[in-house]
Amino acid sequence: MTATATTTKQFLNAEQVLEHWQGHRNLTRRVIEAFPEKELFEFSIGGMRPFAKLAVELISIGGPGVKGIVENRMEAYDEEKFQPKTKEELLKKWDEETEVINHYFAQISAERFQESFNLFGQYEFPVYQNILYFIDNEVHHRGQGYVYLRALGIEPPFFWERFPVM
User: Fold this and answer.
1) Residue 161 domain-assigned?
2) What are the beta bridge partners of residue 125?
3) For residue 163, is it within any domain?
4) What is the C-alpha separation between 16 and 21, in angstroms, rounded?
5) Domain assignment of residue 31, given as a range
6) Is there a domain that residue 36 lies in?
7) Residues 6 or more apart in contact with residue 27 via CB below 8 angstroms
8) What is the pLDDT along the chain (166 residues), one digit of tens a residue?
9) Which of 28, 51, 47 minimizes the C-alpha distance to 152?
């Protein structure tokens, strides 16, 4: 009897997950850019927060979350630390946090993705689930931004154009 070896290919590797996430971040950045400055900070529908506040939430989760995972630190979530007053300030911080994510994400080993981590001292899930939460939360809030832009009569960026046109 002969044994047949099979190779299982991985669905996604860490670099592909990061690329996927950064595609979403690129698109969310374009949504921020699409807002007129006043409406970015003031416009809301149905009592939801203005998009600037939603973007600050994403800024307060992504970079700090990945850094906390790598450094194995469980600090409390703090959305009050960064209070931008202009779109330019918000976009600058967005770009800085994108680099923080790139820097720290590259330091997460394949094995580490399966380990439990208590994100912000509140939720204990495997690291990969925390990363997926970061992405899911961003997609959710970006959807709110799309609704706001459409209500303002502004065409949002196409959702499938997550990467810069080369």
Assistant:
1) no
2) 117
3) no
4) 9
5) 14-151
6) yes
7) 142, 157, 159, 161, 162
8) 666 666 666 778 888 899 999 999 999 999 999 999 999 999 999 999 999 999 999 999 999 999 999 998 877 777 778 899 999 999 999 999 999 999 999 999 988 999 998 887 777 899 999 999 999 999 999 999 999 999 999 999 887 777 765 4
9) 51
In a domain, 4, yes or no: no
C-alpha–C-alpha distance, residues 72 and 104, integer Å:
12
Whether 21 and 134 have beta carbons less than 8 Å apart is answered as yes
Q: How many domains does the chain have?
A: 1
Strand-pair category, 123-126 with 116-119: antiparallel
Sign of torsion over alpha carbons 87, 89, 90, 94: positive
CA dihedral 162→109→11→55, nearest 10 degrees, is -30
Residue 141 assigned to a binding site: yes
Closest to 134 (Cα-Cα) out of 8, 28, 1, 11? 28
CA separation for the pair 107, 22 (Å, rounded): 16
Provide the CATH number for the domain around residue 86.
1.20.120.450
